[in-house]
Amino acid sequence: MHTNPPDETSRSRTFWKWPHFPGTVHDPDNGISEELYNELVRYAKYASGAYQVLCPRPMGNTLVTQFIDVITATQGFVARDDTRKELVVSFRGSREIASAIIDTSLVLSPLRGPGLPRDTDAHVHTGFLYAFRSVGERVLNVLREQFDKFPQHDVAVSGKPRCHSLGVRRIVSLRHTTYVIVLEQGAIACIAALSIRNSFPDVGLRLFTFGQPRTGDHSFAELVETVIGMDNIFRGVHSFDGVPTMIPTRLGYRHHATEYWQFTEPPAPRHVRRCVGSEDPEGSASIPSTGINLPHMVYFEQPIASDPTVCI
Q1: DSSP of 147-174
Q2: What does the pLDDT look like over 13-51, one tens digit per residue?
Q3: Which residues pair with 65 in a beta bridge?
Q4: What is the fold of 29-311?
Q5: Can you tell me the distance from the alpha carbon of 280 to that of 115, in angstroms, rounded to the nearest whole number?
Q6: Cβ neighbours of residue 153 under 8 Å, at least 6 residues apart?
Q7: What is the Rg, in whole angstroms, of the alpha carbon atoms belonging to the chain?
Q8: CB 258 within 8 A of CB 207
């Protein structure tokens, strides 16, 4: 079973360090545990799997299903790890032209869609919400089928930039915890994780994103933190990746916790800090956005879009 990481919130002072990546002045205690770092590496590999042309065995495990919506170009897969007893939902971030068009829809829309909470005034990026809606019901149905067959499995949702109508039965007891791991290099996984957690309230869930842009407003950020839990959210940011800060706060957007910022090279546990709150001024928000750049392409040692070895 998974355990929450210890409180590793020691602060450090940010500065510019050229010609290397921007970094922080830090002490040896400023990093995270090796165990947590290995988890970040593991799920970055799952996120990479969603970018491959074919992924028959994500991380050597069972491919339950792949999903794609041709209109929004939203795609990903659900995998099952019978050794770790977990289900992994991995979304691919925006890459195709259709996705790029959607990503320009910066208007905030009411949070409405398959499995999402109804009693909220939260608003999210219109394009991200539209992309989630195109596959959300499908993902929920697949998970329901898997829970019926494998009630003791954990579930994880992963990705790079989570139903009221499902009638799901209670599937866990005090002795067993089920986790959904949701991953993505983007924002769709965050909305999907909220949907999954709301649809399956007795299922444990962890959310991993890599290079996620700001996804919604302050109410949305608070909702994600409350429903999923800040200790179950791992929002990875690689040094000066410009995507996480590309959508400005002046448009009403806010990040949710909890950020894990690799602030310098090389990638290592001691070079990752667990940031405080949703917009920690000593985290990646301290660096002006430079848009989609080289750090966005590699997360925790893992090339995101060009590694077929994660699928065998």
Answers
A1: HHH-TT-EEEEEE----GGG-PPP---T
A2: 222 232 333 333 344 357 999 999 999 999 999 999 999
A3: 78
A4: Rossmann fold (3.40.50)
A5: 30
A6: 80, 82, 85, 86, 87, 146, 147, 178
A7: 18
A8: no
Q: What is the pTM of this model?
A: 0.84
Q: Which of these, 60, 64, 59, lies nearest to 87 by C-alpha position? A: 64
Return left, alpha or beta for 268; rule: phi > 0 is left, psi -120 to 50 is alpha, else beta: beta
Domain edges within the chain: 29-311
Question: What span, in angstroms and rounded, lies between the C-alpha atoms of 238 and 284?
Answer: 8
On the question of pLDDT at 192 being above 70, the answer is: yes
Q: Tens of pLDDT along 139-180? A: 999 999 999 998 876 566 766 653 222 222 222 222 233 567
Look at 32 and 2; give whichever has higher pLDDT: 32
CA 148 vs. chain centroid, Å, equals 25
DSSP 269: G
Among 184, 246, 188, residue whose Cα is nearest residue 209: 184
Q: Where on the phi/psi map is residue 286: left (φ > 0), alpha (ψ -120 to 50), or beta?
A: alpha
